[in-house]
Amino acid sequence: MSSTVQDDPLRQEAQEVIAEATLLGFIPYFSDDLSELWTEGVPKDRLLLRWDTGNGSWRDFLQAGKGLGARVIYIETALFHWEDVSASLEELGEEKGLEPSKLEETLKEAERFKNREGKVQDLVLAFLAEGVWHVYHHPADWVSQYQTLLSGLEEEEEIAEEESGLSEEELERYSHQLAQCLPFGRSEKKNIRREIARRLFKDRLERLEPHIEEIVETAIGIFETEVRPNKERALAQEAHRLMEGGLSRRKVGERLNLSWQKLNRLLLDFPCQET
Asked: Whole-structure pTM over 0.85, yes or no?
């Protein structure tokens, strides 16, 4: 289905931009893909200033470019293609393992966008001034509607994950976080450690409560094999440094708040390393 200026507001807006930019002395440069400038994942070494319709109109954007001395205005008109959307929905549904009935329902709902075929879905303008990219993004007013369909499938996956329990990655992440908690390391009683875990994860406790025991057990292993040895190694190194600086063992123990027995054990377990 071809699209005309009359039934495609962003196509008409793009033509107005080109005419106005030319009058202002810009050199229009037409690009097939400016998305790396205005989507997520922009390289950290690129200085970028994003505009949208809430920051001003495209006319304001062009005037800003003129004021900053930009010479070239980059223009992209990204077109909507129904086949791309339907393929994305099918791929996402298969990837998430959704029920065929749910996927079919979503595809039927998406068919209302077929009449948008060939229309401009995103108008993107950009200019480079003083080492900073300025990017203006104006999506069509109907774009958010089909994006909602995609996000709906993502939410289905999140719900399925919550019902199926914790992934190994989540278990490791929560357990490491708990193992690093100072009160957890100071307590030897498992019931107290469980309460510490509940307080630490109170914002997501409804989901984690069935897994608290597993998280605590995993955290204990991490604390004993990683956290405690690292802390004791650091204390021993500091003790050796203080003793080399002339402090007696008694003074070092007082400085580090260590008992005589614990200080001696640390010095034996972690002897001074030659440098």
From this structure: no
